[in-house]
Write a structure and sequence with these properties.
The chain is α/β, with parallel strands linked by helices. The chain is 37% helix and 13% strand. It has two domains: 2-8 and 263-372, Aspartate Aminotransferase, domain 1 (Alpha-Beta Complex); 14-257, 3-Layer(aba) Sandwich (Aspartate Aminotransferase, domain 2). The chain is globular. Bound molecules: pyridoxal-5'-phosphate (PLP). Pyridoxal-5'-phosphate (PLP) binds at residues 69-71, 99, 101, 147, 151, 176, 178-179, 200, 211, 330-331.
Length: 374
């Protein structure tokens, strides 16, 4: 079977697994313990992983708070900021195409008297800096949260411009970069207004159950203030107490290191693969296929394709013995996509859409299967 659902999750890289195994076996020390070698080894392994993840996204290792994944990071950052600053402002600005872990967090906060403004997106799922600037001028929020690259259609927001608008207005800016890291260059140091980032390891051939929330320091010493997620022994700069999952952290670090080394090659491979697949679909099905995105400005390897006149659920079931695909996000596959609806697609068009998400490990010959589609 061909696996083409890499935006849902990816297969763990064998080198990542190899790096993790000792920390599930003989290297079982707790990195918060002291004086003996097992603890020191665990502490060192976590510190190396922190540097590997920091190198991938251009932040300082101390700015990384390991979490269980991007869902937790999004919850933590948004709730943590609102909790800490609610006396100054209780408004959040976000977009209509965020991952459910942002949207549902905002929905929850609305039940606690927090106000949320949802920015409309263009036909390709993007917001722009002028639109954000105009809204902020009318009503200053405490936080803006905008997804970097969309998990369903791959569209990219102009994160640097949005961060500049937020910085000038003195507003915190958070972005969910889960689908972008390892596929496009990310350098937080180049984007001074970007205060928070959410990441996940299992989208880049790392293990499930580990991710990170990045909280940028405002100066050498001062962290942006945000209410801790878990109170306890003070791990992760007091933000998320609890014994660290050393094996998962080591796996995340290794996956980040590999992704960093292979970034340029992988980008090229993904672009070649997606153009190969688009050509196959277009030449096999002609005007029965339509691509829902702007090919020049998106995450490489994500294709959102309408199959005109075909019910996507029936097609997915029919293809399931041969190809693993999804209609959109794995998190909300039972509901019609809020992302496709926000870009103006009708419910009929949404019911005809399938997401292909490729991996650098996908082979062109895997994609030849789609030549048999009629
Ligand atoms: N944000 C985006 C954009 C995603 O695509 C996903 C996963 O699908 C998440 C957040 C949630 O990530 P995790 O599975 O690590 O909680």
């Amino acid at each position: 079977m061909i696996y083409l659902d890499n935006s849902a999750t990816t297969k763990i890289d064998p080198l990542v697994l190899e790096a993790m195994l000792p920390y599930l076996q003989e290297e079982y020390g707790n990195p918060s313990s002291k004086y003996y070698l097992l603890a020191e080894n665990a502490k060192k392994a976590v510190s190396v992983a922190r540097e590997q993840v920091a190198a991938l996204i251009g932040c300082h290792p101390d700015e990384i708070i390991f979490t269980s994944g991007a869902t937790e990071s999004n919850n933590f950052i948004i709730k943590g900021i609102i909790d800490h600053y609610s006396s100054s402002s209780n408004l959040i600005i976000t977009t209509k195409v965020e991952h459910p872990s942002v949207l549902e967090t905002c929905n929850y906060l609305q039940t606690k008297e927090v106000k949320v403004n949802y920015l409309d997106v263009d036909n390709y799922g993007r917001i722009n800096a002028d639109q954000l600037h105009s809204l902020i001028k009318i009503n200053k929020p405490v936080l803006v949260s905008a997804i970097w690259g969309n998990n369903e259609i791959g569209s990219l927001n102009p994160i640097k411009e949005l961060a500049t608008v937020c910085k000038q207005a003195g507003v915190f800016f958070h972005s969910d970069a889960t689908q972008v890291i390892g596929k496009l260059p990310v350098n937080m140091t180049d984007i001074p207004g970007l205060c928070f980032l959410s990441l996940s390891a299992h989208k880049l051939c790392g293990p499930k159950g580990i991710g990170a929330a990045i909280i940028r320091k405002q100066s050498d010493e001062i962290y942006t203030k945000i209410t801790p997620l878990l109170h306890g022994g003070g791990q992760e700069n007091n933000y998320r107490s609890g014994t660290l999952a050393v094996h998962n952290i080591v796996g995340f670090g290794k996956a980040a290191e590999i992704a960093m080394k292979q970034l340029t090659d992988n980008q090229r491979k993904l672009l070649d693969l997606e153009s190969y697949l688009s050509d196959i679909l277009s030449s096999t099905l002609g005007d029965k296929v339509y691509f829902n995105h702007d090919n020049s400005d998106k995450i490489p390897g994500i294709l959102s394709v309408q199959f005109k006149g075909v019910n996507n659920e029936l097609l997915l079931k029919k293809l399931s013995p041969y190809a693993a695909l999804s209609s959109g996000s794995a998190c909300s596959s039972s509901k019609p996509s809020h992302v496709l609806s926000a870009i103006g697609m009708t419910s009929e068009e949404i019911r005809q859409t399938i997401r292909f998400s490729l991996s650098p490990h996908t082979l062109p010959s895997d994609l030849d299967f789609f030549k048999s589609l009629r």
